[in-house]
Design goal:
By secondary structure, this protein is of the alpha/beta class. It is built from twelve helices and twelve strands. Bound molecules: NADP nicotinamide-adenine-dinucleotide phosphate.
Length: 300
């Protein structure tokens, strides 16, 4: 049986499990606190020790639901690494949703996340989305204050392009440890934009979210998605895989920037499927076949 292992995210970065369990959808899973705890313990037993949260998840119930489960087994905190994110402000009545990466907003967000999760520290904090009003000096000051207070051990970003990473990095003492990005066969933007090349150059491992396009690789009945599924099923046979999701995880992990998939399922059997995908590998031709099916045309 395949298990996850711990890997270094970047030089000077933390060691995290090579698959990460995402908790964006936790509020939809309809689990009581004991069931949530069992789910956490089950993926930790598979070696998935790293969990992904955000201040905004569940509008914003998810961190609190996770914290409630953790309270039932406080010793679990030392066995897991918690990622959370800050910087998205939901719309208040009569106002619009917006991004806010000011120092004050970052500090307030982390304090709330710690309280909800029932922990003293986050292993990794990410700026959830690039705030067009981001003052990099302010973000650096917030990171320094959080590090000094022992509230956050490592810092990274999410959904940033090359220029945004480079700007923020220019103001920081310690290197950013990751960029969490959307990556799946129907969203090739990060493959084509150069951001993955930059991360590879810097030896910073990205995290890949929505590898299954939020489940659409199974549920979307469009012609394009049907063609992608046909190709993925062909590869299930060629690779000796069990499911198309395993083929997609193998496709994501073949990228030389070495992305760590962030899993979105609340079904432990599907989580096990993802872990088993760690032992699959595909050829260049097979990888390009998925790329071509995802974007609807072959390379020139
Ligand atoms: N940084 C960011 O901006 C950002 C944005 C979005 C997400 N994320 C992170 O990435 C994680 C994963 O994202 P995601 O949830 O979109 O991942 P995903 O793996 O693309 O989608 C998960 C969804 O697909 C469904 N699914 C899986 N297998 C299926 C099947 N065989 N048939 C039908 N449905 C199936 C799951 O349902 P079941 O639960 O029933 O299996 C779940 O609802 C999130 O939890 C979050 O931590 C980060």
């Amino acid at each position: 049986m395949t298990f996850c292992s711990k890997v270094k995210l970047s030089s000077g970065g933390p060691k995290l499990s090579n698959l990460i369990q995402g908790y964006w959808r936790l509020a939809e899973w309809d689990m009581n606190a004991q069931q949530r705890l069992s789910f956490i313990e089950s993926h930790v037993a598979l070696g998935i020790s790293t969990v992904d949260h955000a201040h905004i998840y569940g509008d914003p119930a998810c961190e609190g639901l996770f914290g409630e489960a953790l309270k039932l087994a406080p010793q679990l905190r030392d066995k897991i690494e918690i990622i959370s994110k800050c910087g998205i402000k939901a719309a208040d009545p009569g106002k619009v949703a917006h991004y806010n990466a000011s120092k004050q907003a970052i500090l307030a967000s982390v304090n709330t996340s710690l309280q909800r999760l029932g922990t003293d520290y986050l292993d990794v904090l990410l700026i959830h989305r690039p705030d067009f009003l981001m003052d990099a000096d302010e973000v650096a000051a917030a990171f320094q204050a959080l590090k000094q207070a022992g509230k956050v051990h490592y810092f990274g970003v999410s959904n940033f392009n090359y220029a945004q990473i480079s700007l923020l990095q220019s103001r920081l003492d310690a290197p950013l440890v990751t960029n969490q990005i959307e990556l799946n066969p129907v969203n090739l933007q990060v493959i084509e934009s150069g951001v993955l090349d930059y991360l590879q150059e810097q030896r910073i491992r990205p995290m890949a979210w929505s590898c299954l396009a939020g489940g659409r690789v199974y549920t979307d009945s469009s012609e394009g998605m049907q063609k992608l599924r046909d190709t993925l099923y062909q590869l299930v046979n060629e690779l000796g895989a069990n499911s198309i999701e395993q083929v997609i995880y193998a496709w994501v992990m073949k990228l030389p920037a070495k992305p760590l998939p962030v899993l979105g399922s609340g079904n432990i059997m599907r989580v096990k499927e993802a872990v088993a995908a760690l032992s699959l590998s595909m050829s260049h031709e097979q990888w390009y076949r998925v790329l071509a099916a995802g974007r609807g045309r072959d390379v020139d």
